Fold each of these.
Amino acid sequence: MIYLGIFNRKQKKVDNKFSIIPSHIAIIMDGNGRWAKKRGLPRTLGHKAGVEAIREIVKECSKIGIEYLTFYAFSTENWKRPQDEVNGLMKLLVQYLKGEFKELDRNNVVINYIGNISKLPEICQEELIKAKNLTKNNTGLTLNLALNYGGRDEIVYSFKNILKAYDQGEFSIEELNEEMISNNLYTKGIPDPELMIRTSGEERLSNFLIWQLAYSEFYFTDVLWPDFKKDDLYLALKTFERRDRRFGGLK
Ligand code: FPP
């Protein structure tokens, strides 16, 4: 959590609209299909409109001084969708990385991904790795794209890493702790999200960051993802500002 204004603890490029902002926002961008259906358009055009919303929200979060922004772009379950839709999403990802790279880099954005990207088409992997390498020294917002990501899959991944170290005799069972599990997740080194936003009226986690969201504030809105604009983000941040976060303790 970053305190601003008179509580300013960090030098941040911020406008003083909020007294407090989350350092990490995680977003489930839901409702692209319904947005398209309402307009008699194919689902892929809903996703295309969803990318426009990503552009606007990345820009705003960067401006406000958010440090990490994680988008649930493609889940381990999304492979069950029709092949055309999956191909369309992969194409949009490549177009986004190619088309938006210069602007993101100019805005000092670090491009990162979480999830098992080895199952994505090669062109996606190449563009992701290239974007990550070229922006790794930037110091602004970290844009984290969750791709072929599943929270349960991530916990298995963490355990596999931990058990390899256990096999090498690096620690005893008694020493296993929460920090070790966190440090072996895809999100290693990234603070847990303080705010999770899900659009389109659905109120569930759908296997998104299930370990990391243990103490996050949840914000659900009926707005469909392609319609989620700057004002909707501000509303979510204003709501967050009013939340009383106790982490199981007392104020
Ligand atoms: C959920 O809406 C959305 C997704 C599963 C995909 C989100 C991906 C993008 C917006 C583009 C990815 C590209 C980049 C640049 C990261 P839904 O299709 O489940 O909507 P519905 O519930 O209304 O059918």
Amino acid sequence: MNILLLGSGGREHALAWKILQSPKINTLYVAPGNAGIGQIAEILDISPLDFTAVKAQVIDKKIDMVVIGPEDPLVKGIYDFFINDKEIQHIPVIGPSQLGAELEGSKDFAKRFMMRHNIPTAKYKSFTNKNIDEAYQFLEELKAPYVLKADGLAAGKGVLIINDLNEAKAELKAMLGGMFGAASNTVVIEEFLSGIECSVFVLTDGKSYKILPVAKDYKRIGEGDTGLNTGGMGAVSPVSFADDTFMKKVEERIVQPTVTGLQKDNIVYKGFIFIGLIEVGGEPMVIEYNVRMGDPETEVVMLRIKSDLVDLLEGVATESLDKKNLEIDNRYATTVMLVSGGYPGDYEKGKVISGLDSVSDSIVFHAGTIEDKNTIATNGGRVLAVSSYGNSKEEALNKSFANAEKICFDGKYYRKDIGFDLK
Ligand code: AMP
Ligand code: GLY
């Protein structure tokens, strides 16, 4: 079959790598892709948000399935665009409907969903400019630190965690005043939860589900989890504290009620669910939902799936996921992200990358790269994800770090402590 994958990051390179291992694949197209993806798949130079252009390519290239990497096309309704168009409605789109994508597109929607279905999460209230005085009052009732979340998509920057009450009030006012544009017209204020986080990935056809390997990502730029938030600096799978006892609780209290909740609410959802979890005193609580795979978690999760991903995705499309088998690789997988100097602040692009040919025993997924006249150059803040297998976390990490050293570009930076907080 022919598959079209939308997106351009390390997540999409890892998905493409896994999809191409399937005996069922004829041609894999990726739009818009990057330099690394271009080495293994056919690149289409169209925006994932230009649905009309996507439709034209789907027809022209005889695409049998569309897999959506990032959240934006989902939140903008690509699933519904297909379903509502007679020419392409028979072509499955892997991802939720626009309503389902609100689990990521609106934090208030996600919170109300969790409340409705008794899914454990932090206590919260939502506010707009109309009831800002009540919001101040709610902040006074909470203990520091204060968690303020822009309701809508804010490129991963919409969550503020503030220690001082007066500062929290000032930031709340700024958020409601347009700090994140329309995304912060509504602000969710939450109780602060203290614990260690992990990412649980679920694949669902809307009826049944498979829990994919659990991973932990490292969001801060600095070692020891310090400094600014990034898109993710590395990841590890499996996660030592997410043992069988913990995962049983996750399945019973979170995964099952999420999937049945979607059914009860008549929300069409055939795709990946990313549940951001925090362990509080041994108990899992939901920090957030995303409606896609995580990045860089995908760069470890795909390594640990032994089964044919395309076969699983067909199960999603035909609502027969319960008949499919998910086999997991017991080895560890790690990824270390090489980023541009200055990221997540200002950074330069176009730095020539060398040393990719000398990498051995790791898989390098491209995140932000571009090819120009046979040279590969940096084209984003996160540049390359160096992923490795190992019989232990340390063995996998040592391979990722050794290969991270072999790759060179001006300003290269990576965290040397990925996995530091796990056994
Ligand atoms: P989110 O975009 O909702 O995932 O939030 C970004 C990050 O903020 C999370 O990964 C957590 O590290 C942190 N965070 C979000 N909500 C809370 C909370 N209620 N308590 C503590 N930390 C939180
Ligand atoms: N790694 C977190 C995310 O993809 O949002």
Amino acid sequence: MGIILRNGQLLKNGETFIKDILIEGNNIVRMDESIGNDGHQEIDISGKLIVPGFIDMHVHLREPGFEAKETIATGTASAARGGFTTVACMPNTRPVIDTPETVQRITKKAREEGSVRVLPIGAITVRELGTELTDMKALKDAGVIALSDDGVGIQTSSMMKDGMIAAKKLGLPVVAHCEDDSLAEGGCVHEGVFSQKHGLRGIPSEAESIHVGRDILLAEATGAHYHVCHISTAESVRLVREAKQRGARVTAEVCPHHLLLCDEDIPGLDANYKMNPPLRSRRDQEALLEGLKDGSIDIIVTDHAPHTEEEKQRGMELAPFGIVGLETAFPLLYTKLVASGLFSLQEIVDRMTTVPAKVFGLPWGSIEEGAVADITVIDLETEKEVNPQSFASKGKNTPFTGWALKGWPVLTVSEGRIVWQAAEENDGEEMQ
Ligand code: DOR
Ligand code: ZN
Ligand code: ZN
């Protein structure tokens, strides 16, 4: 028995087409105006938008080691609820994802307990200490799709260069958290209006941009594919734009919070506004929107970074960096960027599906007959307030509580399996 998604509005080339979609096993087997029912399960999705399952190339699942913050089970349930069917998980777990054994442990757990596909990212340096390269070949053979020391910047140029040379040989992208510790040390928010007003130590923009500039030069010297994590400053955008113009293999990602907020929006000493890189200036925010628009920035990721409530209540200086993002990403982007007219629906959807697939060479992210059935169905009409208590994630740390948003995913199909379905009359609570 298959599943028929009936009468949904399939988004393609900027237009929507009313289609029935028949899913059998893991795959989409037919898409047509009207598919007859041969005993299949039917789901009426009239009036709802159909898009490819979203791909998030930057997620912290926290397992192994930090299961109080999140697990593979809760993190992937959160992804499903947010409409994501593929998530790449960052290696700053304990142990760090720096051996093939840890990679295998994660993929096994994800297969057994995960709602969606998990792609592990391996560390560039052993324990992310920045002093010794990992066995990247062994990591690749175990299944990592990229390399990163996310959570920390690689402080020495020579280590980054050696990492790029090794990654290039294996055809793996280097995904860089850009942060010069000598500039960032001790800062908890952006060095700007908010840090001055509250007498807090700031993280200056150059702490990021200096690494971006350095690494672009190294990428050009080594030929490696260099991908900038969570880009946050106007200067970083300029450097990436210029590098692309020269034909360098440089790509970049941006997070919804950096697109929608700046340091002036932080209401007070609330650590739900604390993440790394921090919310920058209004000028930086505008440069990110411009960079996303002109293609200097390729993709949108969440940097979903769950922490416990106790940790986030330690105050601006002591709380850990990070906010959750999987369950609010699309509604935020839809409401604030698409419904407001700044971006088209297709532009935003592409940057969460086909473009990340292309940048990382992944076979998912499009809806076609014969393709793997990774499908997200979205209600663009119903407005709901963000309520962290309803998140599937263990992390409730978001600055977006109470925001009234449209564009909530109501059905997520991952490899032909329904992994999230909202009950209509039940205000988004899960059926089953
Ligand atoms: O805000 C952040 N949280 N930035 C990072 O680079 C790391 C992440 C985390 O692991 O919590
Ligand atoms: Zn990072
Ligand atoms: Zn991160």
